[in-house]
Amino acid sequence: MDVSEAVARRISVRAFKPDPVPGSVVRALLEAAQRAPSGGNLQPWRVYAVAGEPLEALKARVASSPMEEPEYDVYPPDLWDPFRTRRFVCGEDLYASIEIPREDRAGRLRQLAKNAQFFGAPVGLFFCLDRKLGPPQWSDVGMYMQTLMLLAVEQGLDTCAQEFWARYAKTVGAFLDLPDDHMLFSGMALGYRDETAPINGWRTRRDPFDAWAHMQGFEG
After folding, report:
1. The pTM is what?
2. Rounded Cα–Cα distance for residues 144 and 131 (Å)
3. Spatial separation of the C-alpha atoms in residues 177 and 164, rounded to whole Å
């Protein structure tokens, strides 16, 4: 599989098979992704991988814990267009794939709660960085995560990046005994895609090229 194929196949999978992923495979992926770029080679990412009984214990703890004040605003308040419309359409397409109408608020909340179960994935990953670092290093962590997601696809695995976990930073931090200087940036589900699940059968839309890109001075 080449990089273009991995990019085309990667989606945010929200239904996984229960099949375990060997620890050796997870470690190899995490180490290979370390070749991701970072400004000044700071390598700001700190990664925690959880599976098996510890993962089940964490999920049980989160299930009985209320949502917390998030580490950061995942989206700016009063989101404006075109970003507001893109987010709205994404949500509508997702819920349409599992036949949950807009008026079924309880059904939508049940689907949201599946984030806390890593959508059934056998591996949960958490990505942290030092609180004193800034937005450029957040970008570096994002590049590490994207590199990891593409490497996972190459190995026949799938992922779902989850900023949802920023709302359980204290609970996760206490469970993993994270140092106080670690900010929980994101979680990620890792495992094998359930190809039969309707929620995995749709793709997010993309705006046309001319809506977001400009080119000057090229020939051909």
Report:
1. 0.95
2. 18
3. 19
| Cβ 191 vs Cβ 122: under 8 Å | yes
Determine how many CB atoms are found less than 10 A away from the CB of residue 33.
20
Q: Quote the CA–CA distance of 90 and 87 in Å, as a whole number.
A: 5
Using alpha carbons, select from 202, 197, 209, 188 the residue that is nearest to residue 146.
188
For the segment 201-217, the average pLDDT, to the nearest whole number, is 96
SS3 label, residue 104: coil
SS (H, E, C) 123-174: EEEEEEEECCCCHHHHHHHHHHHHHHHHHHHHCCCEEEEEHHHHHHHHHHHH
Q: What is the pLDDT of residues 123-167, one digit of tens each?
A: 999 999 999 999 999 999 999 999 999 999 999 999 999 999 999
> Do the beta carbons of residue 44 and residue 140 sit within 8 Å?
yes
d(CA 15, CA 199): 7
3-class secondary structure, 10:
coil
Contact 26, 148 (CB under 8 A): no
* Residue 158: both structure tokens together: 């799938």
pLDDT at residue 104 above 90?
yes
Planar angle of CA 203, 209, 215, nearest 5 degrees: 150
What domains appear along the chain, each with residue ranges and CATH number?
A: 3-73+115-202 (3.40.109.10)
Report the candidate in 116, 128, 129, 118 with the shortest Cα–Cα distance to residue 67: 116
Is residue 115 within 8 Å of residue 12, measured between CB atoms? no
